Every structure is written in structure tokens, then in C-alpha cells.
Known about the structure:
Blueprint: E1 2-6, H1 10-22, E2 26-30, H2 33-39, E3 48-52, H3 60-69, E4 77-82, H4 87-95, E5 100-103, H5 108-150, E6 160-165, E7 173-179, E8 185-192, H6 196-200, H7 203-214, H8 220-234, E9 241-248, E10 254-260, E11 265-269, E12 272-277, E13 295-298, E14 304-308, H9 310-313, H10 324-337, H11 343-353, E15 362-368
Parallel strand pairs: 1-2, 1-3, 3-4, 4-5
Antiparallel strand pairs: 6-15, 7-8, 8-9, 9-10, 10-13, 11-12, 11-14, 14-15
Amino acid sequence: MKLLIADDDATSRMLLEAMTTKWGYECIVAEDGQVGWELMQVDEPPCFLFIDWEMPKMNGIELIKRIRQQPTNNPPYIILLTARNETADIVEGLNSGANDYVVKPFNNAELQARINVGFRFLNLQADLSHVQSRLARERVVVEKIIAKMQATTKFDSTNVRYLNRPVESTSGDVLFSARGPDNTQYTMLGDFTGHGLVAALGGPMASATFYAMALKGLPISEIAVEINRKMFHRLPTGLFLAAIFFEVNADRSKIQVWNCGMEDVLAFREKRLLKKHSSTSLALGILDSLAFEAELIDIQANDRFYAYSDGITETENAQGEHFGQQRLIQAISEMLTVDADIHNLEDAALTFRGTGDQSDDITVLELTC
């Protein structure tokens, strides 16, 4: 195991090197902080460092801070050596990134014990890194399985436009669309609790249930109730599905809208907001039973209905402001005015967000009647 000793005091450096070599460690030495920094810029740098506080060219505190700023999956264990023994000095040294703090002159037995503690820490860190790597590989496999289970050639994109921007490689938002035997169109947008792999676990079950029932021409009241039943009995507590269901009849004169815990459905006619359709039920999977409370609406040709996950309205800018529903309505109106692609809505939200990170999955559905 390789150790680095960075100390400008030759006597202290030689004494520490002699002791650690006797204990079976390979040592490399640096007479100042700059040399210590250069010795860390190799493919396999030392994993255990003794760094003196007071050194020329670069002191120990600056050296430690630089080392901690380097991205790595296996950060070194650092013991700060110094004659300073005031509480404020100890606090400053540990806050700079040191794992331990030893005051000179040090006791040999105590130093060896502290080295043993450090290597126990490094061994645990290595074990954790191996576990994380294994979990990452397994996650990729699970994501592929979920994607294949949820993938379907049955999605009917007629009269449907949508955008989906997940936070991670798997999305907690789901979107299904199908035609029944009599040409009735069924469409569903859902948003599972959270995002990522855990949120995506319920997607294949919801997908299988939706398509099995929609392709038989069963009404959305039965489809939603059955998905709710399966969510309640098969998903863990705390994981539920907010969803919006649309059912457009065969002659496209009427639409049923059932909002279960999602944000308002926005109905547009002639490029202007006509009405908002708010949630009338709890999200799916919270209760064992679900009361059917859909709205039956007369529609005209080219009426458009927009459903969306809260990832777009809760997009946040640097000032902590949300994109919000009103900005979304404005973006939809502008998109319809110039007959633009639906991804213009995503662009509007991302422009509003600026350089910040995306915090939730973003999905927007446009259903044209």
C-alpha cells in the first residue's frame, strides 16, 4: 500500500518514512506542497497521505483542498500533521478536507493506530465502490427489462402529439393511446410518484392493463378502476399514479375526460384557451376503490386538449420561480399561432429554467379532436 508524506521538515519526514516503512508500507516523499501536488497527478496516486500544515510553495491546507476538488471514486485518506493544537486549528484542518489531525510530536503507537483506522476506512470505501458498480450494472439491466416490458407497437399516434424529457434514463411518466374495435380513441397520461427507476416500476403493469382493455373497447371508467385496483394491491405504499384518461367517441363529437390527481387539463379552441378541467378523483393506487367522475364534453373539429405532468409547470429558474400554468398556456397559444412543433413547449420551459438542473420528468400530451 502506497503512502505519500509531504513535509518540509527533513527530520520529521525521515522519521515518519522510517516508521511507516517498518510497518510494511511503501512511501513516497515530498519536501513541499507543490511537489506533493505533482506526485498526486498520476494514474494511480497514493491512497493514504500525511500532509504537514506549514510548507513552502503550497501549504497543507491548500494542498488538501486541491486534492478534494479532484473528481474521483476513491478519494485518499488524509492525516494532517502540525504543531498547532488549538481547537480552531483542528476545526480548520478537518474542514479543509482532512480525515484526521495529528499534533507533532506524535506518539508512535497512536500514529500506527490512526493509520489502521484510515485503512479500515479505505477498505470500506473500496467495498462500497464495488457495490455501487455492481448496482449500476444491474440497474442498466433492469432499465432495459422495464423498457421492453413497456414498449408496445399498439400505441396509436393518430391525432396525438407529445414530448417526454425524463430526468434519468427511465421515466416515471407514462403515455398510452389505442383505438377500440369501433374506432373509439383511448388515451392516458400518467405520472408516478417521484422519477427514475423506482417511479418507472409500475409502468409495465399500467401499460398491459390499459392496452388489454382499450383494444377490447371497454370504457375508461373500467380501465381506470382496474389500473387503480392493481396499483393499490401490487405497488408498495407511497408509490401511486396520478393520471388523466381521455375517451373520444367514434364520430369525434364527444370526449370524456377523467382527471385523477393531475394538474388541470387545458382545452383549446381556435388557438385560445376554452376551459380548464380540474382533478375530480384521487391518484390511482391510494384507495382500493375509485368512483367514476369523468366529464362528458361536446367537441368540435380541431379542438385540442393538453395534459401534462407537473415536471413542466414546476420547472424552476435561478430566482426560485416556477414556470407555472399561465406560462404554459401562453406557450401553447404561441405554438398554435405559428403552427410550431410541440417541442416548442419544452424549449420555452428550458429557456425559463436557464442553467439550472431538471428536477422532474417532463411530459406534455396534445390530443386533437
